[in-house]
Amino acid sequence: MEFIKQLKEKASQNKKRIVLPEGLEERTLKAADTILGEGFAEVILIGNPDKVKAEASTYQLEHIDQALIVDPESHDRMDAYADMMVEIRKKKGLTKDEALTLIKNPLFLAVMMIKAGDADGEVAGADNATGDVLRPAFQYVKTAPGISVVSGAFIMILKDKEFGEDGMMVFADCAVHPNPTAEELAEIAVATGRTTQAIAGFEPKIAMLSFSTKGSAKHEMVDKVAKATELAKQLAPDLKIEGELQSDAAIIPAIGQKKAPGSDIAGQANVLVFPTLETGNIAYKLVQRMAHAEAIGPVLQGMAAPINDLSRGCSVSDIVNLVAITANQAAGIV
Ligand code: ACO
Questions:
Q1: Cα 286–199–327 angle (5° rounding)?
Q2: Which of 212, 232, 253, 318 would bridge with 222, disulfide CB 3.0–4.6 Å?
Q3: Taking the model in full, what pTM does it have?
């Protein structure tokens, strides 16, 4: 896929250290081998080194010896990371003993490596649920300055090239925050615009979706999206944002012009911001399955460092692709 090829080329120019905490998981190991073979990122695997090497030889992987393998049960930074955890969570009453137990969990170790500057980004989730991947990140890496909410965007590559930017669109939030307020939805819109510019590589035309177009229906859920649209415009005057729009008014030019006359986004939208996680998650999966679109992500946005979560049904190439995206985020291309 051309899009991913370009991301890998960009990542190769400034190689970043991506930590994969599920170092004994088969698809993760195979992905690590591919990444190291292609050479677009450095890989840190978390797992018992003997077991990792034994698994790698079972799958006849050739490049795993280039990875840094960190044993979660025994490494020389354990005490320092535990001290950092206690400091970060002192208001929550975390004790050193509790921290020393948590740091043996690869998902906590991975985020502490990032926090300490020993890794640049993380990809996990082939073996762990979303909440288990995200919670350590929320607690220790936290959100980027000026951002209060993390959300997840999907880059959708559609077979039908008439939609979006030659068939490419960005959908959010499809992965993280169940029921955002208007203020949070505004932040999600701005973050999605920035992800679009940096990762998808085109100028976003953002539609704030609802079941109403420009006041055609009256409801508090419509008011939320209208308010979020205004707030998002104030937060990022440089971004093109329109709302509230129904999905047909967002992507079909004739309907956009009829329902929102004069708008240069209605009917032309290439970024869809959904009012809730329910709508975003359902929509991306329907488009993926029924329109046979590729769904790349979720790309987590708003975190202070790039940490991305896989679906447990992911393939080896899904992991490789998400590492390419994460490496680009880590290189500050986001
Ligand atoms: N952005 C930033 N910080 C957050 C967010 C967020 N969206 N959500 C929670 N946090 C923070 C909290 O402030 C809290 O911080 P603190 O401990 O320093 O006070 C910490 O994270 C834990 O918060 P909780 O409310 O305890 O978080 P909880 O674990 O209940 O929920 C979670 C967080 C797991 C992300 C939850 O919102 C969730 O389950 N979301 C849905 C995820 C999901 O299942 N997605 C669909 C599948 S993914 C897919 O299909 C691609």
A1: 110
A2: 212
A3: 0.88
